Automatic annotation (TrEMBL):
Keywords: Acyltransferase, Lipid biosynthesis, Lipid metabolism, Membrane, Phospholipid biosynthesis, Phospholipid metabolism, Transferase, Transmembrane, Transmembrane helix. This is Phospholipid/glycerol acyltransferase domain-containing protein. Residues 95-219 form the Phospholipid/glycerol acyltransferase domain. The chain crosses the membrane at residues 20-42, 54-75, 131-149, 346-368. Belongs to the 1-acyl-sn-glycerol-3-phosphate acyltransferase family. It holds the Pfam family Acyltransferase. SUPFAM superfamilies: Glycerol-3-phosphate (1)-acyltransferase. InterPro entries: Acyltransf_C, Plipid/glycerol_acylTrfase. It comes from the Eukaryota. One of its GO terms (cellular component) is endoplasmic reticulum. It comes from Perca flavescens (American yellow perch). GO terms for biological process: phosphatidylinositol acyl-chain remodeling; phospholipid biosynthetic process. One of its GO terms (molecular function) is acyltransferase activity.
């Protein structure tokens, strides 16, 4: 009986905590997202007069919004430990980031672990499934200039054309630096069986922890954003000016990001919202490749990308059996570093969001009273 009462008490606490978190996040969204939109409406004259300053300010507010999402996980004890290459020194250089995709929590994990990478978040473009357009954060991503891609054979060719046009229109004009995509084209649990059947027919490696990537979006990004010479190889500059008029170097790096969850149990967005899972450490492994090592021609790029996901499979297999990623060549043990969010900064951002929400509510209510 005592055990039953203890279990009921713990369940009651989890439910109460979940309700409190949901209410807080509901109001957090209600004040932060409208404030972001209204500030940008107010700054539209600046967009015409000095677009680079406008998008710089927008990027700062975008980073703050992502910090709020990160704080939801952080206060529940969901943290990130990083492995592999240190990507902070290249935060000001252009890069394409390829990530394995297990659940909706992958996006939240990236939002958290990129917060301490300089100006990366505010100058980042995301490629995500079109379903995210209809979430609470969809309007923000739409304004920021992210691209929503529709999956499926029926849409594939048109989507790649739309992606190319989107990159040409928004990537340089808004001074973006990093572009993030999930080449697998869907969640692991949904694509694994289809991917394994495809691999069996083509005599490709059998993968369990990742799926074979799709080449289309990666190829378009490389062709559009990399500096290419007449022979098809990667050059040093795109010739496309940025907002300051200087020539851009184009993509300089491909960053291969592998996300691993303890016991291969991915966290989804519901976990981040309700916080019902005990404190959890998500592990993120980085590996950087200079763009000159990445082929642009479709067939060679396919082989190269497949090899990256075979390596991801090996990394994840090692992690799930040992609890850590393998060490780099020349090192006996793999080095890890805990990604730490600044609680003071998070409190300031949240306070600013709620203060802004109150301010805009007061302004709009005053205008309503004056008009009606």
């Amino acid at each position: 009986m005592a055990q039953l009462l203890d279990g009921a008490g713990k369940l009651g606490w989890v439910l109460l905590k979940s309700v409190i978190r949901f209410v807080f996040m509901f109001f957090n969204n209600c004040v932060a997202i409208p404030s972001y939109c209204l500030y940008l409406v107010l700054l539209q004259p600046l967009r015409i007069w000095d677009s680079s300053t406008f998008w710089h300010i927008e990027g700062i507010m975008f980073k703050w919004l992502l910090a709020m999402v990160s704080s939801w996980g952080w206060i529940a004890g969901y943290t990130v430990t990083e492995w592999g290459d240190d990507v902070r020194p290249i935060s000001e250089e252009e890069a394409m980031v390829i990530v394995n995709h297990q659940s909706t929590g992958d996006v939240c994990t990236l939002m958290m672990c990129l917060q301490d990478k300089g100006m990366v978040v505010q100058k980042m473009m995301w490629l995500m499934d079109h379903v995210f357009k209809y979430t609470n954060f969809g309007l923000v991503s739409l304004i920021h200039g992210d691209f929503f891609i529709r999956q499926g054979k029926a849409h594939r060719d048109k989507q790649l054309i739309y992606l190319k046009d989107h990159l040409e229109k928004y990537y340089h004009s808004r001074d973006r630096k990093w572009i993030v995509l999930f080449p697998e084209g869907g969640f692991l649990r949904k694509r694994r069986e289809t991917s394994q059947l495809f691999a069996k027919k083509r005599s490709l490696p059998h993968l369990t922890h990742v799926t074979l990537p799709r080449i289309g979006a990666t190829h378009v990004i490389l062709k559009t954003l990399s500096a290419q010479q007449e022979n098809g190889s990667v050059g040093s500059e795109t010739g496309t000016p940025n907002q300051t008029g200087n020539k851009r170097k184009g993509l300089q790096w491909v960053i291969d990001v592998t996300i691993a969850y303890p016991k291969a149990r991915p966290m989804d967005i519901q976990t981040w919202i309700f916080g019902y899972r005990p404190p959890t450490v998500t592990h993120v492994h980085y590996r950087m490749y200079p763009i000159k090592e990445v082929p642009v021609e479709a067939e060679a790029l396919t082989d190269w990308l497949y090899q990256r996901f075979v390596e991801k499979e090996e990394l994840l297999t090692h992690f799930y059996s040992t609890g850590s990623f393998p060490s780099e060549e020349g090192h006996k043990e793999a080095a890890s570093r805990q990604m730490i969010l600044d609680p003071v900064r998070l409190c300031i951002i949240q306070s600013f969001a709620f203060a802004s929400g109150y301010m805009w509510y007061s302004v709009l209510w005053y205008l309503y009273c004056c008009l009606f």
